Amino acid sequence: MKQKVNLQLRLINHTLNTIVKNQILLYLKMEEQDKQLRQLSVLVRQAERNHLGESK
Fold first, then answer.
1. For residue 22, which phi and psi values (nearest 5 degrees)?
2. Is 32 helix (H, G, I), strand (E, B) or coil?
3. Does residue 54 have a pLDDT over 80?
4. Which pLDDT score is estimated for 39?
5. What is the pLDDT of residue 46?
6. How far apart are CA 39 and CA 56, in angstroms?
7. CA-CA-CA-CA torsion for 38, 43, 46, 51, nearest 10 degrees?
8. Across the chain, where does the E strand assignment appear?
9. What is the pLDDT of residues 5-53, one digit of tens each?
10. Which has the closest alpha carbon to 37: 22, 29, 53?
11. How far apart are CA 8 and CA 54, in angstroms?
């Protein structure tokens, strides 16, 4: 019985560790996408300013 409980606890621990690792990876991907979005926004604003300057 004790072995079965220990096995279940190890499985739960492994599952929780996997969830935590996946959450960290998702967070890092979101951070990278946020950075890329900020860079893209800067480029769009620059392009809009350049376009407005050309159309005068």
1. -65, -40
2. helix
3. no
4. 98
5. 94
6. 26
7. -140
8. none
9. 999 999 999 999 999 999 999 999 999 999 999 999 999 999 999 988 8
10. 29
11. 68
Enter the DSSP assignment of 55. Answer: T
d(Cα 37, Cα 21) in Å, to the nearest integer? 24
User: How far, in Å, CA of 13 to CA of 6, rounded?
Assistant: 10
Residue 12 structure tokens: 């739960």
DSSP 1: -
Look-up of token digits 């604003």: 45
Report which secondary-structure segment, H or E, holds 23. helix 2-54
Q: HEC profile for 7-20?
A: HHHHHHHHHHHHHH
Q: What pTM was computed for the model? A: 0.71
